[in-house]
Amino acid sequence: MRFEGKVALVTGASRGIGKAIALALAKEGADIIVNYSRDDDKAREVVDLAIPFGIKAIMVKADVSNPSQVEEMERIVRKEFGRIDVIINSAGITFRHPLEEVPYEEWRRIIEVNLNGAFYVMRAFFKLMVDSGGGSIVNIASVAGHIPMVGSGAYSPSKAGLIMLTKLAALEWAKYGIRVNAVCPGSVETDMLREEFTEEQIKIKKKLIPLGRLGRTEDIAKLVLFLASEESSYITGESFIIDGGMTISYYLVESRLMREHGI
């Protein structure tokens, strides 16, 4: 029980990667705050799944892109738990447009949720984490923050910004005993992925991944728990790619294409 006696906040925890992380933390003994912005039923389902692990779990509705709602969430957590030990910034959105067609409001919305939202949460909970004796923050970025995802509009810039925010916070907050790291998934089997890509596109994605499959939410959760735990007590300011070998596979893909063309 790596997190027994610890309190963990997971944003965007009603589905996908955030849900898997929240349940993994609960299984390891953490009391959890399930943050979500829209679907009460899905958030309640995560709480209902977590409670049988013998922990305390609450759901808090808050749009992370709204600082006042984030500050109210901090007040709720302070009242209910009196401490915070782990923060997982998992809330994120994406839309697909080439840059010249990105609506201004869409650009602002992605930056607000993916980048500013993480900052608002980190800033709002900073004092409580310091008062708790320090802790661990893990930001869910993306391989798209390391390499540009063509046609993703603001998504790649937002995730690149999140990686740099991670590094900056790691340096500034190390003296408070707060570690900050980022996890950068590739293609992961989630509702959001299936909303964004067709089945045919997903088949192509799998062919381009050296390990031959999409990531699972559980794969990401395992890495996040390591970074959130004392097992990684000497790691901070790093961004960890978890993508089945996708980002290093240029020459592999090149050789396959050449063979297919008889070159």
UniProtKB/TrEMBL annotation:
Coiled coil: none annotated. GO terms for molecular function: oxidoreductase activity. The keyword Magnesium does not apply. InterPro entries: NAD(P)-bd_dom_sf, SDR, SDR_fam. The keyword DNA damage does not apply. Keywords: NADP, Oxidoreductase. NCBIfam families: PRK07231.1, PRK12826.1-2. PANTHER family: 3-OXOACYL-(ACYL-CARRIER-PROTEIN) REDUCTASE, 3-OXOACYL-[ACYL-CARRIER-PROTEIN] REDUCTASE FABG. Belongs to the short-chain dehydrogenases/reductases (SDR) family. This is 3-oxoacyl-ACP reductase FabG.
